[in-house]
Design a protein that fits this description.
By secondary structure, the chain is of the alpha/beta class. The protein is built from 5 helices and 5 strands. The protein has a 5-stranded parallel β-sheet, with helices on both faces. The radius of gyration is 14 Å and the shape is globular.
C-alpha cells in the first residue's frame, strides 16, 4: 500500500454518481498502484453522511483525500464542498475536484469554495490514468496531509 510521506496509510473518498466513471477511476487508481482503501458514495447527501459518520457510515474512516465530482444528485459537488469547508472538523481534508466540466464558472466557484485543486476528468482511460498518477504523486507521495482531528 502506498502511504503518505509520513508513512500513514490514506483512505480516499470518491464522490461519483456515474457507476462507469467510478469504475474507471477505481481501475485507474489500481493501475497506478494506489492501493489505499477507496470508499465510493454516489451523491452529495451520502458524501456528507460519510464524512460526518452518520447513519450507516457511523464507523466510516476519515478520508485523507476526497475526489469530488461536481455533477451529483440530491446535493451537488459544489454544495458538498461548501458544507465540508465550513465544518471545523472537516475543512482540513484536501478536496480534489475531479469532474468532466471545463466551465470557467465551475472552476472559479470550486476554488472560491476552497477546493484544493480542480482537474477536468479525461474521458480516455490512458489520460485518466495519467491524471490519477499526478494525484498520487502529489497528494499521496509529496505533501504532508493534516492529522486526523477527530
Amino acid at each position: 500500500m502506498l502511504t503518505a510521506n509520513d508513512g500513514k496509510i490514506i483512505d480516499i473518498l470518491l464522490v461519483e454518481d456515474s457507476p462507469s466513471d467510478a469504475l474507471m477511476t477505481k481501475e485507474a487508481l489500481n493501475h497506478q498502484k494506489v492501493l489505499n482503501r477507496l470508499h465510493i458514495v454516489d451523491d452529495g447527501v451520502e458524501a456528507m453522511a460519510f464524512l460526518r459518520r452518520q447513519g450507516k457510515y457511523s464507523e466510516a474512516p476519515r478520508p485523507g483525500l476526497i475526489l469530488l465530482d461536481l455533477n451529483l444528485p440530491r446535493k451537488n459537488g459544489l454544495e458538498v464542498l461548501r458544507d465540508l469547508k465550513s465544518d471545523a472538523e472537516l475543512k482540513a481534508i484536501p478536496v480534489v475536484v475531479l469532474t468532466t466540466s471545463k466551465a470557467e464558472e465551475d472552476v472559479l466557484n470550486s476554488y472560491e469554495a476552497h477546493a484544493n485543486c480542480y482537474i477536468t476528468k479525461p474521458v480516455e482511460f490512458t489520460k485518466l490514468t495519467q491524471a490519477v498518477q499526478s494525484i498520487r504523486e502529489f497528494w499521496v507521495c509529496v505533501v504532508t496531509l493534516p492529522p486526523e482531528t477527530r
